[in-house]
Amino acid sequence: MNDDAELYKKSNTLQKRDAVECLEEYAIKIKWRNYNDRIIDIGCGDGSVTSNILRRYLPNNYGRLIGCDISKNMVQHANRHHANNRNCFRVMDIESELPRDLRECFDHAFSFYTLHWIKRQECAFRNIFDLLVEGGDCLLIFLGHMPVFDVYRVLARSARWRPWLHDVDRFVSPYHDTQEPEKKIRVMMEEIGFRDVEVKRKERSFIYDSIEAVKKAVSAVNPFKIPRDLQEEFMEDYLAVVRDMRLIDRVNNNTDSLSVRANYSLLIAFGRK
Predict the structure, then answer these.
(1) Above 80 in pLDDT, residue 170?
(2) Cβ 53 vs Cβ 110: under 8 Å
(3) Which residue intervals define the domain Methyltransferase in the entry (predicted)?
């Protein structure tokens, strides 16, 4: 994912909306202790969802909130802007070996819009299981089918962009082409040892108020290292593919203020250890 924290903070409206709706729906399932709950947010990005959204759903007497992300730049930004005596951020790769001091350390694990970047899904879910204490729970939301992945694949076949998108499938959700991803995830979680597993797929849409808003949102999560002097050209070609594939629907025809709708599927997974 792009590690420009300022750009991500300004352009992740979709992610924030889905995080709020998911937390509203699942808040009743989360079993808080009487005090001192320890919480981890996996893939915290710039820290704004961790501090400004997730924290609103925590009891006042929670103990510790840690946000982790694979991006050093994101973690540095999060610590500068959101760290305090109970909240901190650190670099961690959920797809690699867990740091010893984090094993069996948390009562609750959350992750918003991160797990679709992970290829070794079983490794990531097993690590989440190992982060939790006995009786701990997790709430995870991530992308299933998303048109942006198909656009990347088309661009990867072009001579112009192939050098930068040669590993395109590394950045496509493992569930993008799966017919019933919720069943596959449920079986995997239960085999790992999770109890009370609930996995849902929801068909969603999001309306961007302009083409410029679409470009910023795509740029904020673009995982490919496109040279800075080519980024505008890349986005123009990206939008041309979007139009050719008719992946974004017009909401209105006002050319001065074109609103567009993006359709996608969201996966929500809940389980206890």
Answers:
(1) yes
(2) no
(3) 39-136
